[in-house]
Design brief:
It is a single chain. The chain has about 350 residues and is of the alpha/beta class. The strands form three sheets. Strands 3-2-1-4-5-6-10 form a seven-stranded parallel beta sheet, with helices on both faces. Helix 3 links the parallel strand 4 and strand 5. The longest helix has 21 residues.
């Protein structure tokens, strides 16, 4: 079976490539913008006609699209996530290869969910930001194309190679910096959000299974379990051997709660409360009344008042997301195998190499 993989150099695409290459029955061709792609082609600017000619020449049985953008303005996201998929669909319609399309979608297409609920594929999508809107538009294009196609809605991928800008990537980087500088106190924001983390290697297994199946429509790929970022931070600290204190910056100024006990915890809370009172007296009731440092930006703090690290969530998914993964089990024979602790250990191994 010849598979054309688009976006082989991306976070998910790299693991999909490894998984497909491990199958002796697969002949893999990588298409992308980088020099190391088998064929260089930019979906965001290339024409459907040019892609059609390539499809007719290679004649793949399956096209897997892992390409896309997660950051940028609405125009850029639309170009890379929606227009690019329109190009793929149109090229496949024109081509005589008859290839099956496996499109990588994302949980941001659903938008916020009711806390405690599991989101199934028949939920009405209500994306909360331009990224989710652009991905949902791509999904609608695929579903309305008339092609033999399946969309895998991936929830929060984790594991080796996790992007530094993701919540878990930022958490690992903040902990690395704290350990490197000998800081015994780490203050973090955004830990109240709960996400369904699924290891990227399990995602690659799902893509492989979808390539071989006849399943169509939308299929959720997740762990089926929401995890609070606070708990992930605690687990990462244990894996990393970080003996300092983790303090949470969720809620109004002054609402610092120790996640891991530390002799300095009480004094840190008192400092935060004092900072909150000062902010209130000046009329600043927003969370940014406490100085936030994100990826080294913003106020640096000092020895007695270390600047906190905030973790914004631009995915528009609110405080809760949890996948209903029964469809993946029933139609793909797929279940997640790698637990979050193993994923976090692999994330930390990469971060520790930079100490």
């Amino acid at each position: 079976m010849r598979v054309l993989l688009i976006g082989a150099n991306g976070y998910i695409g790299r693991f999909v490539a490894d998984r497909l290459l491990a199958d002796p029955a697969v002949q893999l061709t990588a298409l992308g913008r980088g020099d190391d792609a088998d064929v260089r082609f930019d979906l965001a600017s290339g024409s459907p006609g040019a892609l059609t000619r390539f499809l007719d020449a290679v004649h793949p049985g399956v096209v897997v699209n892992c390409a896309g953008a997660t950051r940028g303005g609405a125009r850029e996201l639309t170009r890379h996530n929606t227009v690019a998929v329109a190009t793929v669909c149109e090229a496949l319609r024109r081509s005589g290869c008859g290839a099956r399309l496996v499109q990588i979608g994302c949980s941001a297409e659903y938008g916020p969910s009711q806390p405690g609920s599991s989101t199934a594929e028949d939920a009405v999508p209500r994306p909360g930001g331009p990224y989710g809107v652009s991905k949902l538009a791509a999904t609608e294009l695929v579903l309305g194309s008339g092609l033999d196609a399946v969309v895998l809605r991936v929830f929060s991928p984790a594991g080796p190679g996790t992007p530094a800008g993701s919540p878990l990537g930022r958490l690992a980087e903040a902990m690395r910096r704290a350990m490197q500088s000998g800081d015994g106190e780490l203050r973090l924001g955004g830990l109240g959000a709960q996400r369904d983390f699924v290891d990227v290697r399990d995602v690659a297994r799902a893509v492989h299974a979808a390539s071989l199946s006849a399943a169509q429509g939308v299929i959720n790929i997740g762990s089926g379990r929401a995890v609070r970022l606070r708990d992930a931070a605690t687990t990462l600290a244990r894996v990393a051997g970080y003996g300092g204190a983790l303090h949470e910056l969720d809620g109004p100024p002054g609402a610092l709660r120790p996640v891991i006990g530390h002799p300095r915890a009480e004094s840190a809370v008192h400092r935060a409360e004092a900072l909150g009172h000062r902010a209130e007296s000046t009329g600043h009731h927003r969370a940014d009344a406490v100085a936030h440092r994100v990826d080294g930006l913003g106020p640096r703090g000092d020895a007695d008042h270390p600047a906190p690290v905030a973790y914004p969530y631009p995915d528009g998914c609110g405080s809760w997301q949890q996948a209903d993964v029964r469809t993946a089990r029933d139609r793909l024979g797929w279940r997640p195998r790698i637990n979050l602790e193993e994923s976090l250990a692999d994330i930390w191994m990469e971060a520790a190499c930079r100490i």
